[in-house]
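Review form for a predicted model. The reviewer records the input and the model, then writes brief findings.
Reviewer: anonymous (R2)
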Amino acid sequence: MQLSELHVEAPEEVTEGETADLTCNTTCSLTDPTFIWYKDGHPLTTKTIKNNQLHLQTVSSEDAGSYSCAVRGSQHLHSTAHSLGVRYPPKRVSVSISPSGEIVEGSSVTLTCSSDGNPPVKIYTWFKEGGTSPVGSGQNYSIISITADHTGLYYCEAQNDHGALNGTVMVSVKSRSSSAVWFAVGGGSFLLITVLICICSFHRMKKRAAGTDHSKTRQDDVLYTSVTASTSRPAQAADSGAADVLYTTVRVQNDEVTSTDQQGEPQYDNVTFHHHTAATG
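Model under review:
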């Protein structure tokens, strides 16, 4: 048996929801043959096969593909492939916004509608919820210099020869005043935090400076002296021609009270007084 002796008879195209029968024909005389069907090169096990026919009940878009058949025992000999097309209405309609992210008054946005259908969708119509008439047409819908009035739910109607389906998207427009308020709030918060940090730093530096001044003041305490006069004179000072010598005891202490054993040794100094006498005749 040659490859050319097997071929598939089937419609070129069917509409979703209809039924379709594919027949595997051969010019060879076969005794009670068992036919095997393949879709896109893979054996079919979930479809109804009766004699030499493949029956597709309620065709869907997933049934579109390339079909071939073979006879059990000679599976390596496939028939020529037959392409089956399925017509169906739009599916998986979605709407995207460009640019993405926050939409601010005065900017421009474009809504794009995408869908899957056979034949491909060529008619797109745009509506805004609450409106009575379309706001645009075509696969893309652009809004130039958008305002807060454009806020709302938009939907795109995708249509082909076999039906129509809608996709929706929410457009939220923020006013410039709102954006300015948020910017001001953010800037004000940053400024307040900065001021608080500066105040805390100032107080900390002031406290450190006060501690340093206090320590310095303690070191610079006024020193007091105690001067005690002594009436005794050394022997070598008995000469009337010598100057009188007055001995004093100078004790230095600060404003703190200290114990006797913590006080330093007395410091002595000599104070000399010169007496001037009148010259004799």
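Findings: Residues 179-185, 215-250, 254-264, 275-281 have pLDDT under 50 and may be disordered.
Further findings: Residues 180 and 186 are 10 Å apart (CA to CA).
Recommendation: see findings above.
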